[in-house]
Design goal:
The protein is built from 15 helices and 13 strands. The chain is of the alpha/beta class. It folds into three domains: about 120 residues, 2-Layer Sandwich (Gyrase A, domain 2); about 130 residues, Four Helix Bundle (Hemerythrin (Met), subunit A), CATH 1.20.120.430; about 150 residues, Rossmann fold (3-Layer(aba) Sandwich), CATH 3.40.50.300.
Length: about 450
């Protein structure tokens, strides 16, 4: 990890521009500009000196001096702006023709098209927001429920960062104490009191667990889980898919192999966001289209969080399905779904088997669907009664887990009487893992991965 990355900071000398509002027609569109050329561009477009932080009503002119539109122009001089640079906004009528023509003129005046998320990235690189706050901007835009939106706003306002920074400061204080002891090692002076430090580390671990629990709920609210329905043809996968999403999206027939491609629908059930995937029936086939659907199904299974292996309640788990179960990717939750209980009047229930949980349902009547939904929530760790306080992402959860593990190693080193150098190094690792969350430590690849998911203009 590095504290600063010069490659991405080098691009800050460019002036960037993009349409900040969604594509299509509307009442108003916003074209945003950030960089050192903003003042110059404002004069070229509006033919006047804009009053800072004031809604200036004016006409907008193209690079060939033709009148494009009239609207509101806003100018925010650095450093008191979102990106920390000069920022310019043109509020036009919501015609794609108008905004495209204006954007093209901005390119003639020296700006370039912004990359996805580049405005937020510049705000981060210019220390206006930290990395978790930048991610919260995208989370707020992408939120699928009111609670998820509230959590994202809380993170944007710094609630999550505040807790992480406080933890990090506590680790730094302990590390400074240990490193001071190293400085006095030749004088046979011991500053480190193992019992006192162990107590402080235990308090830190307890705090990490509390933050992790809330972050886990926040991540589930924001990102949800991806669930795939798989199985042999004609076991009712598509019927179950339609029942869960609440509409007839998948074609259902008695003809084997009706579903030949992957269907995916995003739903929210009791606050839990679920990306539900219906797949082609897995079986031996010589049909080229079916074979391609089967190939895509197997590839998709590497990217899901939970697999529902659907079988017929009348047949039980066949030899073919047992072999399929053993071929599934490791580390992914698998639940057996025995469908069509309406045919033999079996009651809906959840059972434990040597292969895991079995849930008996009827996609036709809806019996057992409530048990399935409850099971999905429980296995995901989602607790509808537990109020989350901020949004989070899986990378944050991973960083918190690594921090807790590093603190545990520090406690073990203290207990064993290891040298202060080893103890200090474990503390440094824990400190750095927390720094990854807020962006105290980052790589170009991490920034690229995060901001590439943003929309252009944000």
């Amino acid at each position: 990890m590095v504290y600063h990355t010069s490659n991405r900071k080098g691009a800050l000398s460019d002036t960037i521009a993009a349409i900040a509002t969604p594509a299509g027609r509307g009442g108003i569109s916003i074209v945003r500009v950030s960089g050192s050329l903003c003042f110059q561009i404002a004069k070229q477009v509006t033919k006047q000196n804009l009053k800072p932080r004031y809604a200036n009503f004016c006409s907008f002119y193209s690079h060939n001096r033709k009148n494009i539109d009239q609207g509101i122009a806003l100018y925010f001089p650095a450093p008191q702006s979102f990106t920390g640079e000069d920022i310019l906004e043109f509020h036009t009528h919501g015609s794609p023709v108008v905004t495209d023509h204006l954007l093209n003129s901005l390119f003639h005046f020296g700006a370039r098209l912004a990359r996805p998320g580049e405005f937020s990235e510049r705000a981060f690189l210019n220390n206006k927001i930290d990395l978790s706050q930048a991610e919260a901007i995208a989370d707020l835009i992408e939120s699928t429920s009111l609670q998820a939106a509230r959590n994202a706003l809380s993170s944007l306002q710094g609630e999550f960062s505040k807790r992480i920074n406080l933890l990090r400061e506590q680790l730094i204080q302990i590390r400074c104490l240990v490193e001071s002891s190293i400085d006095f090692s030749d004088e046979d002076i011991s500053i480190v009191e193992p019992k006192s430090i162990l107590n402080k580390l235990q308090d830190i671990q307890n705090t990490i667990k509390i933050i992790y629990s809330s972050a886990q709920q926040g991540a589930l609210l924001q990102e949800g889980i991806k669930v795939a329905l798989i199985g042999r043809p004609n076991v009712g996968k598509s019927s179950l898919y339609n029942k869960l999403i609440g509409k007839d999206a998948a074609i259902v027939t008695k003809i084997p192999g009706t579903t030949r491609d992957i269907l995916c629908t995003d739903i929210v059930i009791d606050g839990l966001a679920i990306s539900l995937v219906d797949t082609a029936g897995l079986h031996e086939s010589i049909d080229l289209i079916e074979l391609e659907g089967i190939r895509r199904t197997r590839k998709e299974l590497d990217y899901v969080d939970h697999i529902l292996l659907v079988s017929s309640n009348q047949d039980g788990l066949t030899k073919e399905e047992y072999e399929l179960f053993n071929e599934l990717p490791n580390g992914i939750q698998v639940t057996l779904i025995f469908n069509k209980i309406d045919l033999d009047l079996t009651p809906a229930c959840i059972e434990q088997s040597n292969l895991g949980k079995i849930i008996r349902v009827s996609a036709l009547t809806g019996e057992g669907i409530d048990l399935l939904i409850q099971h999905l929530r429980e296995t995901a760790g989602f607790n509808i009664k537990e109020e989350s306080e901020f949004s989070a992402r899986r990378r944050h959860l991973n960083a918190l887990q690594k921090t807790e593990a590093a603190v545990e190693l520090t406690k073990a080193a203290l207990t064993k009487g290891e040298s202060e150098e080893i103890i200090a190094e474990e503390l440094r690792q824990a400190q750095n893992y927390l720094g990854e969350i807020t962006g105290k430590y980052y790589t170009d690849d991490l920034l690229g991965e995060i901001f590439s998911t943003f929309c252009i203009g944000k």
